[in-house]
Amino acid sequence: MNYALWFQLASPEIVLSIAGLLLLLIAAWSSDKSARLVSILTVAAFFGALALSLNFLLADGYAEGADAFYGQYRMDRFAALSKVLIFLSAIACVIVAPKFFARDGMMRAEYPILILFASVGMGLMVSAVDLLTLYIGLELQSLAAYVLASFLRSDDRSAEAGLKYFVLGALASGILLFGMSLLYGFTGTTSFIGIQTAFSDGVSTGALFGVVFVLSGLAFKISAVPFHMWTPDVYEGAPTPVTTFFATAPKVAALALTMRVAIEAFGGQQSVWQQIVIFVAMASILLGGVAAIGQTNIKRLLAYSSINNVGFMLIGLACGTPEGASAMMTYLIIYVAMTLGSFICVLDLNDREGRPVEDIPKLAGLSRTRPGLAAALAVFMFSLAGIPPLFGFWGKFVVFDAAVAAGLIPLAALGIAASVIGAFYYLKVIKVMYFDEPADVIAPSDSTARLALIAVSALFVSPLGYFATLALSPITEDAARALFWAA
């Protein structure tokens, strides 16, 4: 038992946990007067955890990965890459929040602390190689998320969003826990590798039900059809900085966890779960595209957009190959940049009284009143639609390429055809901004930080992003191989 190595492997979560406890004391002693200081220190803690994760991702000494805490926690290139995305998303969500909450005097010191503790749970999720670690990380993230969704206590929509998220999240947790108990009962172990070994002799009917229940619980966390029902309401009702967080960091953690469970725990019986993933992928693509068409609230539209994009990413998982996993991680990186940029643009849509503007018709003529913001939002919309030469096209291309290589040609063909549906509602937003008569509702920006983050995200998803593939491709390939180490 090498405790020093164990603590070293878990150092990102340890740093964030210690920082969270200390900042909680500062918040308790200083009340909301310390909100700015707590936010700055939270960002500093995230940068520390980010540096540790980057070291695990890039240093040669960690290429093979290692287990800790009696095989319940694993740090490898896959977990490190997922944590880098989670921490970068969390940093952005902490930075953009103060201006939003200051409008109503609702910026509280607890906001960055809740983001921090949720990130600890997400770190555990992506490193979990045991059902117990999986559930602890998932619940730690979820409990913080329920509070964040209802953070604006005086706003009925926020309270409703928090209540819906809590009730449906509790149901999903129960489904997941029941599936875990079935897997333990029929395999005799909670270890992912132990489950894979038990499945090598075949899957009993009881264990098959366990697989279905576990995947159903995880489908709720990634907002995949048919467990997507909470997403539009929660995205619309939650404060926009919180919605930005929900659409990025927890999505990364849940998708990474789903990949690890499917490939490491159920990898020996790909035929058992592949059909489920294919159905969920196509259903998410179709419903996410069709249901978004009639939306007039841009946050609800982006909620259905996230469901649609999850479907495309699941095509990579359905391949069940290292190439498919690598393509899925590439798409996830691009998705985080597109989604962060889109929601920060939404954060910058305020009227002259400082009130948020979310109705799409009120964006009419934005290209003439706020040309820079309109151009950035158009870039994100085109990229989300997968229109070349923007970087969003590359995410879809590598996923479809992996599906064709894996022999899933009908799935790739259906995915390509369904992409056209999604393009329609993205183009609708661009049409309103560029071709409708100006509504002259949106006021000039009052946040340099938001504009800087929008600019960075827009540059990344522009054609310049293709230069990043030179560095990203080896990283995502290494991360994908880390999932197949026991194969």
TrEMBL record:
The chain crosses the membrane at residues 6-30, 37-58, 78-97, 109-128, 165-186, 206-230, 275-294, 301-318, 330-350, 371-391, 403-427, 448-468. Its main location: membrane. It is an enzyme of class 7 (translocase). It holds the Pfam family Proton_antipo_M. Its EC number is 7.1.1.-. InterPro entries: NADH-Q_OxRdtase_suN/2, ND/Mrp_TM. It catalyses: a quinone + NADH + 5 H(+)(in) = a quinol + NAD(+) + 4 H(+)(out). Keywords: Cell membrane, Membrane, NAD, Quinone, Translocase, Transmembrane, Transmembrane helix, Transport, Ubiquinone. It is a multi-pass membrane protein. Residues 128-422 form the NADH:quinone oxidoreductase/Mrp antiporter transmembrane domain. It is found in: Cell membrane; Endomembrane system; Membrane. It comes from the Bacteria. Belongs to the complex I subunit 2 family. NDH-1 shuttles electrons from NADH, via FMN and iron-sulfur (Fe-S) centers, to quinones in the respiratory chain. The immediate electron acceptor for the enzyme in this species is believed to be ubiquinone. Couples the redox reaction to proton translocation (for every two electrons transferred, four hydrogen ions are translocated across the cytoplasmic membrane), and thus conserves the redox energy in a proton gradient. NDH-1 is composed of 14 different subunits. Subunits NuoA, H, J, K, L, M, N constitute the membrane sector of the complex. HAMAP family: NDH1_NuoN_1 (MF_00445). This is NADH-quinone oxidoreductase subunit N. The gene is nuoN2.
